[in-house]
Write a structure and sequence with these properties.
The chain has about 450 residues and is of the alpha/beta class. It has helices at about 30-35, 90-105, 115-120, 125-135, 140-150, 155-180, 185-205, 210-220, 230-240, 285-295, 355-365, 380-400, 405-425, 430-440, and strands at about 5-10, 20-25, 35-40, 50-60, 60-70, 80-90, 105-110, 220-225, 260-265, 265-275, 300-305, 320-330, 345. Bound molecules: guanosine-5'-triphosphate (GTP) and magnesium ion.
């Protein structure tokens, strides 16, 4: 798959900085950059992967002193001829060099186009290309770790093994299509069922990582919920480390949902402080309470805050979200009605006590107790969609097989399952899919 045109972009962030990097990729990368080069040796003769000092000049005018590095196909990020120009940072210098390159025939790269070319030239599979984006966006060590593992190809390897597994089952079934006189012996039948069950189990195991995939990419949606005045805003401020929300002795202080992300032991936690829930006629407060309910609907975790010194009140209905009971104001004493179990954590925002135990409980709720190592595979929403399709087709195949349908039907479902698994790492004919994935990238990547 050859990309005919040559693309260029500034790959570093558009702001004041010491250095900016401009990338050029495609068949004319060396020629175009060579036409603007004044150095000891011509660009075309430079050894690959060697930084050469020189100048970028256009029509006799020097644009900047730079370091230029040539990469020759296929040994480059994109798999094409590439040139990287490191110039002085700052928006203007790098833009002037980019404009000069565009005037000489390069085209401005689209978001993610360098990585898309890397994929099209077989340098990365789709899960790795997506991991590049995850890596750039990672806000915590856990997210970074998961992205790095995916970039290493850990998920891709498992997906290819699974696809191979389904392919082998399919090959067996097709053998019976080719030799219709052969009956499937009971032994073979049992072995086939077992193989399908095992492929199905691997799909389930991968699908089970979708929750943590969402947490590492989007953060754990954590709603601080409770009656007015129990200290919700105080808890947000304490976990954040600064006075983000207004704290006041008057009940009904918080009206809007305030959201801030904290890095809690490597886990990105999206904390939402909400309006206290109570009966009220105040229109603004009612709107606030309505917003609290909506936040609750989309929560992964609810920190249900109580005033520990008061008698226990009823539990919140949080749907599928996990609920942790947090007994604040424990400095005022704990009411006899509370039984302190693992899911009821006493704290005091005033005295800053119990916070480590609360963090333990949040961490446990987020990870289910799994250690960091087991977070290395964490599928994203697109992978989940592919694998759900694969699973549904595999179930259909298992059923068709168990019902003794003719092997053509079983084969058709198996093929659909195999293709859906393959879509996770990408098949070369999925142009539309590629558009969706790479358009979310930044330019220059
Ligand atoms: N004694 C004691 N007081 C606390 C503690 N935490 C918060 N408070 C006080 O409780 C009052 C209410 O605190 P907020 O954080 O505004 O409570 P809230 O739940 O956000 O209240 P609303 O926004 O009105 O729903 C303030 O006067 C805080 O100083 C605590 O641990 N101990
Ligand atoms: Mg508040």
């Amino acid at each position: 798959m050859n990309s005919a045109d040559t693309i260029a972009a500034i790959s570093t962030a558009p702001m004041e900085a010491a250095i900016a990097l401009i990338r050029i990729s495609g068949p004319l990368a060396i020629e175009i950059s060579g036409s603007l080069w004044a150095g000891r040796r011509p660009v075309a003769t430079l050894p690959a992967r060697h930084a050469e000092f020189g100048r970028v000049v256009e029509d006799g005018a020097k644009l900047d002193d730079v370091l230029l590095t040539v990469f020759r196909a296929p040994a480059s990020y994109t798999g094409e001829d590439m040139v990287e120009i490191a110039c002085h940072g700052g928006v203007l210098v790098s833009r002037r060099i980019l404009s000069a390159l565009l005037r000489r025939g390069a085209r401005s790269a689209e978001p993610g186009e360098f990585t898309k070319r890397a994929y099209l030239h077989g340098k990365l599979d789709l899960t790795q290309a997506e991991a590049v984006m995850d890596l750039i966006c990672a806000q915590t060590e856990l997210a970074l770790g998961a992205a790095a593992e995916q970039l290493e190809g850990r998920l891709g390897t498992r997906i290819r093994a699974l696809r191979q597994q389904v392919l082998e089952i399919l090959a067996h079934v097709e053998a019976y299509i080719d030799f219709p006189d052969e009956d499937i012996s009971p032994d073979t039948g049992a072995a086939m069922s077992a193989r399908m069950a095992s492929a199905s189990a691997e799909m389930d195991a991968l699908l089970a990582t979708a929750g943590r995939g969402r947490v590492v990419r989007e953060g754990l949606r954590t709603v601080i919920y409770g009656e007015p005045n129990v200290g919700k805003s105080s808890l947000l401020n304490l976990l954040l480390g600064y006075e983000r929300a207004i704290v006041n002795a008057r009940p009904g202080t918080t009206r809007d949902v305030l959201e801030e992300t904290v890095n809690l032991r490597g886990i990105p936690v999206r904390l939402m402080d909400t309006a206290g829930v109570r009966e009220t006629d105040d229109e603004i407060e009612l709107e606030g309470i309505e917003r609290t309910r909506r936040a609750l609907d989309r929560a992964d975790l609810v920190l249900h805050l109580f005033d520990a010194s008061q008698a226990p009140t009823s539990a919140v209905d949080a749907g599928s979200a996990k609920v942790l009971r947090v007994l604040n104001k424990s400095d005022l004493g704990i009411h006899g009605g509370w039984s302190i179990a693992a899911d009821a954590v006493p704290i005091s925002c005033l005295n800053n006590t119990g916070i480590a135990a609360l963090e333990d409980a949040i961490q446990l709720a987020a990870t289910g107790g799994a250690d960091r190592g087991s977070w290395s595979v964490a599928i994203n929403a697109r992978h989940q969609e592919c694998l759900e399709k694969a699973k549904a087709a595999m179930i259909a195949a298992q059923k068709a097989f168990a019902d003794g349908l003719s092997p053509e039907f079983v084969a058709e479902d198996l093929r659909a399952s195999m293709n859906a698994v393959g879509d996770v790492v990408g098949r070369p004919d999925t142009e539309e899919l590629l558009g969706v994935i790479f358009s979310s990238f930044c330019i220059g990547k």
